[in-house]
Amino acid sequence: MRFFSKLLTVLVASLPVAMAAPLVAVDVGHSLSDGGATSARGRSEFEFNRMLAGVLADALREKQMAVREINFAGDIGSLIERPQQAAGSDFFIAIHHDSISENWLKFWDWDGSEQSYTEVKRGFGLFVSAQNPDPKTSLRCASSMGAMLRRAGFVPSAWHGRRHVAADLANGVWYYDNLVVLYRTTLPAVLFEAGVIKHREEELELLDSERQARMADALASGIAACLSVREKSAPVSE
Ligand SMILES: [Zn+2]
């Protein structure tokens, strides 16, 4: 009997958690004052991040998840403030767009000014930290998002293999252990690089609102799937 009454207590205690809509913290990478990377046509990465984060927030709400918007105004003070503002959420995703190291840059004239670009790197990447307090959920969510993105026709970049150890190669998930937003947190966390804005064709694709919606839908589906199988209570032990 004791076992069952204890089990019941655990079930009742976990019920509100199980039934509540997951709360997802969506973080816009970089800021107005530090724009991050620069695209092949001279746009700041922050603009791309802000756009996609907004579309992702809509897609998450459409799938009955709650959203906490982090740095949507672009005025956050520090890196550590991002996970701090996310505290209490169920999951954290940072939105970024990628560049390439200087050695690989080529140059062209765009709109009267010299800009740099690449032809060798494109595609998305998902990053997790082994030092995150919940690396299992972080990786499961990253894999789930990568799988949904691939199903929707998006292709992961293999380029990250030059600097990162694969966590789930097929789904484009890599370890990036020392990223502040991924490890100085209490939440499962993933950093998403949507694509390479230094790639001239991919830059234009990343600006396409229909494609942004498809990408956001795949991300939201992946997050919903991985959070739905999350262990919700501690195991019962006698
Ligand atoms: Zn970035």
What does this entry show, briefly?
The protein has about 240 residues and is of the alpha/beta class. The protein contains 7 helices and 9 strands; from the N terminus they run H-E-H-E-H-E-E-E-E-H-E-E-H-E-H-H. Helix 2 crosses helix 7.
Identify the notable features of this structure and list them briefly.
two-stranded antiparallel sheet; 238 residues; alpha/beta; globular; 7 helices; Aminopeptidase; binds zinc ion; seven-stranded mixed beta sheet
Molecular structure report:
- The chain has a single domain (22-228), classed as Zn-dependent exopeptidases (Aminopeptidase, 3-Layer(aba) Sandwich), CATH 3.40.630.40.
- It is 38% helix and 20% strand.
- The chain is built from seven helices and nine strands; from the N terminus they run H-E-H-E-H-E-E-E-E-H-E-E-H-E-H-H.
- The protein has helices at residues 2-19, 45-62, 81-86, 135-151, 180-183, 200-206, 209-228, and strands at 23-28, 66-70, 91-98, 106-110, 113-117, 125-128, 166-168, 173-175, 189-196.
- The chain has a seven-stranded mixed sheet. It has a two-stranded antiparallel sheet with strand order 4-5.
- A hairpin with a 4-residue loop joins strand 7 and strand 8 (173-175).
- The radius of gyration is 19 Å and the shape is globular.
- Zinc ion binds at residues 29-30, 36-37, 45, 96.
